[in-house]
Amino acid sequence: MTTYLPIKKILTEHQLAPSKKLGQNFLVHRQTAERIVELSGVTPDDSVLELGVGFGSLTMPLAERVKKVIGLELDAGIIAYHLEQQTLPGNVTLIHQDLLKADFAELAVQTNGPLKILANLPYSISNLLLFKLVENHEYLDRAVLMLQKEVGQRLTAPVGSKEYGVLSVLLADCASVKTIMQVGPDQFHPRPKVDSVVVKITFHPVPTRVAQLPPHDRKLLRRIVNAAFGQRRKTLRNSLSAGMINGLSKEQMAALLIQSDINPSTRAERLTIEDFVRLTNAVTNYPTG
Q1: 223 plus 205 within the same structural domain
Q2: Residue 4 pLDDT
Q3: What CATH number should be reported for the domain holding residue 191?
Q4: If you ran DSSP here, which 8-state letter would residue 44 be given?
Q5: Which of 3, 119, 154, 259 satisfies CB 3.0 to 4.6 Å to 30 for a cystine?
Q6: If we measure between CA atoms, which residue out of 155, 157, 156, 146 comes closest to residue 192?
Q7: Cα separation of the two ends of the chain
């Protein structure tokens, strides 16, 4: 039998409402929340960062399994509710903060190691957070995230598919990604118009594929990937030259693509992370001046 969390009752009694601006969809199925925490792989010795505490659907089962939870929450009404009602266990530290502005390096210090992150993300900020994770990957152990199904599919998309894009490549450069759970709209309040998935993004220990990549300039890689997919219907020769990568001309870029064993007439979705890294190093080593 499915057990429903009393989210609707809490909202009514405390004169709160889901914020459209913040993209709030609260998880209301207790078993789903418990299953997500179970699949996250956390242990009793872990300190975990939860992004977006809400009414504690994930926080409560998480707190039962780990040593410490640091929970970030932006909604002042929800913060006030937790403080007034003393709803959260003693091993949960609630912080009123925008998760997109969080200092992951400092939080990693507070949790004594690479961050283990759990989150039911507002769909409107999922891409922004994913890019933040890429930029801060050295401070991360793993991230278990509830995402819109379409976004989750992009993260695990195979090369050559229409879903394969910038985040597919950039995450492949620093992590491995696996879909661990499907979640239907009926498991939230308010009910979203789309299906959801839970993905597990593993940064540490460094996945084998990532460890096998040669050293490269990650900032330059990101510029190249963004330019390549910025006009994804164009050939790489054209999209990369339009991106003005290191001031290289179309002819110079075509030569570097050939040098990197990449057909200049192909398109971005045909390139693996290994292809992009080879091209990045070719651009890095190209003589200038």
Answers
A1: no
A2: 75
A3: 3.40.50.150
A4: T
A5: 3
A6: 146
A7: 71
8 A C-beta contact, residue 156 and residue 200: no
Domain that holds residue 107: 7-209
Last residue of a domain, one of 162, 189, 209: 209
Report the distance separating Cα 105 and Cα 137, nearest Å: 10
Q: Are 250 and 237 in contact (CB under 8 A)?
A: yes
Please check whether residue 175 is in contact with residue 207, taking contact to mean a CB–CB distance below 8 angstroms.
yes
Task: Return the residue matching tokens 């998760």.
Answer: 99
In a 3-state reduction of DSSP, which class is residue 140? strand
pLDDT of residue 2: 62
1: in domain? no
Alpha-carbon gap, residue 29 to 3, rounded angstroms: 6
In this predicted structure, what is the pLDDT of residue 22? Answer: 84
Into how many domains does the chain fold? 2
**What is the layout of strands, in order, in the sheet containing 176-183?**
92-96, 68-73, 47-51, 115-120, 140-148, 196-202, 176-183
- Count CB atoms within 10 A of the CB of residue 158: 10
Task: pLDDT band for 27, please (50, 70, 90 cuts).
Answer: very high
C-alpha–C-alpha distance, residues 273 and 159, integer Å: 9
Rounded CA gap, 144 and 177, in Å?
10
Q: Which two tokens stand for residue 180?
A: 């661990």
**What's the token pair of residue 40?**
């996250």
Point out the domain boundary residue: 209, 231, 252. Answer: 209
Residues 224 and 196 grouped into a single domain? no
Q: How confident is the model at residue 1 (pLDDT cuts 50, 70, 90)?
A: very low
Please state the separation of Cα 283 from the chain's center in Å: 28
Distance CA 270, CA 289 (A): 32
